[in-house]
Design brief:
The protein is mostly beta strands. It has a domain at 60-224. 5% of the residues lie in helices and 67% in strands. The chain is built from 1 helix and 9 strands; from the N terminus they run H-E-E-E-E-E-E-E-E-E. The protein has one helix spanning 2-14, and strands spanning 34-53, 62-63, 66-84, 87-107, 112-133, 136-155, 165-187, 190-206, 223-239. The protein has an 8-stranded antiparallel beta barrel. The longest helix has 13 residues, at 2-14. It is elongated.
């Protein structure tokens, strides 16, 4: 076959016709434009600070309680891509069930207590920008984030003290996220990805429900929650 191709090229040149040349391979073999949806699973880790602000006028006391949290997550995503040459722009929304938990010691002026934290769900809405190289897509993303967070403070008192109590607060948290990932088209309509995201919910002041008649109500009020989460996810997408 190589000899035949060479003979044909030489004959074409003798006849004044342009010689045949093989087309160069294109780097843009995958078109990412359009809608897609898929699922993901992974793990998250980070920290939740349950910080008590003692309002006592004469001797105010502040205790910072950094609690490490970690756990699994799983969910889905949907989005749309616009591709121009090798550049890609997109929008994506995702949501995850999660069981990101942790516990540790926290404190007030009077009590050493236990604090526990749980993030039960996460969701983000982000913009994406990336570069397509052959079947691979390298992208960065950023936008807004939501989380459902549950916090518990408790004290186990030894007899004859009657100061045992437990109080729980579930709240919606709002913040921002940035991330990056790599996606690979392994079939014409299917791709697999691995992604890292950082989520920061900032700091907000909350009051726990008062659940004890012998513990001063000030111990339930004035708690700052600060939560920061790292995610590592693997997923698949179907592209229309």
């Amino acid at each position: 076959m190589p000899m035949l191709a060479t003979a044909v090229a030489a004959q074409a040149a003798d006849m004044g016709l342009p010689a045949y040349k093989a087309a160069p391979p294109s780097l843009l073999t995958t078109n990412w434009s359009g809608f897609y949806f898929g699922g993901h699973a992974g793990a998250a880790w980070g920290s939740t600070n349950d910080d008590f602000n003692d309002p006592t006028a004469l001797a105010p006391f502040r205790w910072d309680s950094g609690i490490p949290v970690s756990g699994p997550l799983a969910g889905g995503q949907i989005g749309y891509n616009w591709q121009s040459g090798w550049m890609l722009f997109g929008l994506e929304a995702d949501g995850s069930w999660s069981n990101i938990t942790g516990h540790g010691l926290c404190n007030t002026t009077t009590f050493f207590m236990n604090c526990s934290s749980k993030i039960e769900g996460l969701a983000t809405v982000t913009g994406r920008v990336g570069a397509s190289i052959d079947r691979a897509l390298i992208y960065f993303k950023g936008g807004g984030a939501w989380g459902r967070e549950s916090e518990t403070i408790s004290n186990v008192a030894l007899a004859p003290l009657a100061t045992a109590f437990s109080s729980n607060l579930s709240v919606n948290r709002y913040g921002w996220t940035i991330g990056m990932g790599i996606e690979y088209a392994f079939l014409p309509n299917w791709s697999a990805k691995i992604e890292y995201d950082f989520i920061d919910f900032g700091t907000k002041l909350y009051n726990f429900p008062v659940t004890s008649t012998v513990v001063a109500p000030i111990n339930f009020a004035g708690w700052d929650f600060t939560s920061m989460i790292h995610e590592m996810k693997m997923g698949v997408n179907y592209h229309f």
